[in-house]
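Section 3.1: Structural characterization of target chains.
Under the original work plan, the team committed to producing a structural model for every single-chain target entering the pipeline before any wet-lab resources were allocated. The record below documents one such target. The sequence was received from the expression subgroup and is listed exactly as submitted; it comprises 226 residues.
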Amino acid sequence: MKQFDYLRQISVFSQLEEKHLEKIDSISITRNYTKGRIIIMEGEPGEAFFYIKSGLVKISKLSGDGREHILHILNEGHVFAEVSLFSQEPYPATAEVMEDAQIGMIKNSDLEKLIIENPEVSLQLIKYLNKRLIEAQIKVRNLALYDTYGRTAQALVKLAEDHGRKTEQGIELDLGISRQELANIVGTTRETVIRVLAVFKKEKCIELDKSNIIIKNLERIKQWYS
């Protein structure tokens, strides 16, 4: 196993040739973070591009009234802060560790130099950024089209697809996220999310186990926004 093989697990780099992975590894810096640590803060100068080698990271923004809105919960293989690449703009969101994590960091100046010298890397980044743009557009559309039940159902399905663990009881979302954090993902209040989850439980779509959620019927959940 080569030193840079771990980069094949990073979505944006997975299709690159060995020579490019070796170069990316040579400009990467690895740091370990404990739960609760802030990796980057919204508004700070955008100086680097990050990827997750292990652990769980929450990406969030603050609204004008100080409320947190969770944009993504990312695990191994995902990247973040990529929007600051090329633009020299401040980080548009905060990245906080939800469970102990090992994070790879590449300074924007180093990555830009690598991209100029290796067009194949540039193409992969463009494809990835385009995918993220489409995802953002879908999220904005969903906020406009669906009510709280639909948005909560979509959030649960997304969490199940990205982080769910299949058990005999169903798909377990063992993320340790609070009801408030789920509300921040959906874009509503904690009390509203609790009421929606109670309805989903009554309809036998989910089971609730302390902070964990077990999805009993994924297709039935999807019907809330289809």
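The CA atoms of residues 11 and 24 lie 14 Å apart.
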